[in-house]
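User: I'll paste a sequence; please echo it back and then give the predicted structure.

Assistant: Echoing your sequence first, then the prediction.
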Amino acid sequence: MTIKTESWKEQLEKVRAYGTFTEHKDESVEQSADDILNQEIEEELKLIESEEDTSVNEMSSGDMIKKLFKLKNDKQISGVANLLNMTDVKVLQKMQRDNPKGFLRMAEKLGELPAMEEVQEEKLSIEKTVSKLTEKNMLGRLAKQLQLNETGKEQLFNYFEKGELKQ
């Protein structure tokens, strides 16, 4: 029984000493596998960055799309740019490979449409308009419940639109 308690105490000391370097005084501390992998990845990234061609960095996105999809028409290029906002390059390349004529027609039709960013901005302005109309409707109902006259209604609307209260 004393042997078990001694081994238990020894194990406890080992566990307590694990975080410290008391048992590794003479040995060198080894790097973990994650540290080694991180160093290798950083070295590879540095090599890739140094080997990058500067001409690729100077190309515009339109030129890159033109070169990658072998397009000639500006409408097709802008259509493919719209598609790239929605999906991945590999998907578009597969679509082009499967049906080249259909891909060109689709890209040209999408090139005639406004850019996706413009459509999203327009959608936001519609949402703002709807919220303003909802607020005005609620203010109108409030004015009716309070039985305000025309000047009172104007003051109420001005207060909520401009934040000014004139008496």
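The chain has a mean pLDDT of 76. The longest helix spans residues 116-146.
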